[in-house]
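Weekly sync notes, structure subgroup
Attendees: PM, AL, DS (notes)

Item 1: joint prediction request from the bench team. They want all two components modeled as one assembly rather than separately. Inputs as received:
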Amino acid sequence: MASWLQIPKNSPFSLANIPFGIISAASSRVPAIAIGEYALNLNAFASSGGFAQLPAVQSHLSPTLNAFAALGRPVHRQVREYLQNVFRADTQFPQILKDNAALQKSALVPLSEATNHVPMQIGDYTDFYAGLNHAYNIGVLFRGHDNALQPNYKHLPVAYHGRASSVVPSGTALHRPQGQILANPAADPKVPTFSPCKKLDIELELACFISTPNDLGKPVSIDEAEDHIFGLVLMNDWSARDIQAWEYVPLGPFNAKNFGTTITPWVVLIDALEPFRATGLEPGNQESLLPYLREKKSKNCYEIPLEVELTNKGGQPTIISNSNSRNLLYSFPQMVAHHTITGCNLNTGDLLGSGTISGAEPKTQGSLLEQTNGKTPLTLADGSERMFLEDGDTIVLRGKAGTEGNYVGFGDCVGTILPPFKL
Amino acid sequence: MASWLQIPKNSPFSLANIPFGIISAASSRVPAIAIGEYALNLNAFASSGGFAQLPAVQSHLSPTLNAFAALGRPVHRQVREYLQNVFRADTQFPQILKDNAALQKSALVPLSEATNHVPMQIGDYTDFYAGLNHAYNIGVLFRGHDNALQPNYKHLPVAYHGRASSVVPSGTALHRPQGQILANPAADPKVPTFSPCKKLDIELELACFISTPNDLGKPVSIDEAEDHIFGLVLMNDWSARDIQAWEYVPLGPFNAKNFGTTITPWVVLIDALEPFRATGLEPGNQESLLPYLREKKSKNCYEIPLEVELTNKGGQPTIISNSNSRNLLYSFPQMVAHHTITGCNLNTGDLLGSGTISGAEPKTQGSLLEQTNGKTPLTLADGSERMFLEDGDTIVLRGKAGTEGNYVGFGDCVGTILPPFKL
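Output from the run, pasted for the record:
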């Protein structure tokens, strides 16, 4: 597909994508799509009759994407296809935008000038642990090769509830967290020290937003689960490993994760990812799952190359990891089915993280803990070394599926570490 | 304090209380207070000039208590004292309600006819584990007496993120959850079975709602923490023990808790509980805490007797436990300080559970797991036995501080177990 709009060949936001987000316009927040180097302000577009053919959409353009997401997948598909048509070189609707210079000027905002926001009002945020290699790598560090994966791991997508309030959009700087750590973990009796986190880490994840809700008490079946998914974003689940090590027994991570989680602001619709379906790591395992988790589709993951870049203050960017979403053992529909099997209700705007997406080889892991184990440092472009993050470090996660000119990507997921807040 | 309104001596909603909630009125939701056997519809009260003296309140009466809570503790205190005055026998404002039969008729709704709702829009729900005896009792079951408490337990209030979407008001019936359990936990290799939960349990807890928020990155100091608390409710954190046992390693409980959490609908303001401050279980431990958790007040818990009642279908109510909130090792202000020490932002309406409140003696535990360990059944009034809950069982939690005629209580926290949802 070619567009009348100039779209750089390496843009994650090709005509094949059409992701949705929320940007600032004047003093309010408005829905938008990203295309090439622009955001299209959908309120401005609608005001000029852009959605005259789709009146249901017009009344669901709000300062968050929740109302639009709640319209359901058939509507999202219809709107995406319509907007692709509007931007196509051979558009059936040239008068709407292609030949309307005034609307182009008022509604197309350069992405470099757009302020993005968390695109949805998030009710609950759940983080899964579906990255098989990550779970294995972490298991090896804690329990050795033979007992690396817990007995439940290949039977259900392990998950924990996360903190929704501190989910922030790409570009938000975060203070290094402070809390209780064991300065000398080998000591007995174990007495904690109050300290800034000394083992600040990242987690490379994908996450999905929920579109249509389910009622409390009524599970979502595996066959219907995908239709409850609005779309995907990239996510950095920042983790304070030393705080986590001390606090997490017996109820799981809490302060180690609650200080911030960064997501890309553009939601890539689930339909935009359909061409990139791929066979997962262990197709055989899928067949052994209990029926409520068993998918009819054999291709239950996506082929999306992912990368992690670290830039130290005053230094050069270094790509520290290359991974791929094929490393997830469970799909997002399986996560939805498992989450709701007890009757738990998912609401529009809920966020489900995949867990860290690591490969099996060196330089493909999605966390520093796996890459360095606090022992073998990474070497950055300027020769500096890293076990964990230092103040002033900037992390960028990137991911895009497809090929040049037709990429379906997420854009950059950026976060910089500030010094600890002065108490 | 005596009231011109007839208030039964055993009512949890004496003139000393004045808890806030949300009730249905016509087809909308309105804020209310509970007093004796009535709810006072605050919208109706305000429409007749009831808040003429407190205009700031009038514009913050919404279908949830969030806007009112965000006004902050000094305003809550002022409004409570004003409403106590309005209801006092020697009220300074007789014309407002005492001598206004028309407004009494329109604004005082019998509690037996009022429909209650979850009183706040809950952003995030966090559950702590601050019940010392509960943590010890569970620890004994899993690890024996010598290692019952984890090394971190007396240094920080252990917590995990909970599921906000399934917090329901007292009176909501819940389906027995279904999911993966180990039919034979001793077997190796461990292979799960799909089943309705066979070990459905309760957890007797208190919980607080957050009033004023803190910014991401800025911890709330222990000295300021209490002023971020709006008030308390009773909470039943229903728990599926067999689902929990299989899923919870390594990231904590998830499906075992996400199907429902029941709260009382009336928020007892933090100021109403001030007269019931008491010294906690281990005052010495408080002094050994890291400074960010150390409170100036030596009385860091409340004297609130609590009880658990179980009624089987067609049977009689049986009080199965008597406990007291003095069994909490950490206070709600300490939970707030710990929650935010990393920079985590709390929002108005966030809910913080205490953890299960168990005593040290038989018949004082806040969960069935502790009382029966699945081995020694409870005997109900009609002779039936219980290890865990059966379909049709109704649980009522109750708690009130103070003495006859001046009780400050929560009302009933009621939930009934329905059979599993038919898949």
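Discussion: The mean pLDDT of chain B is 96.
Action: AL to compare against the crosslinking data before next sync.
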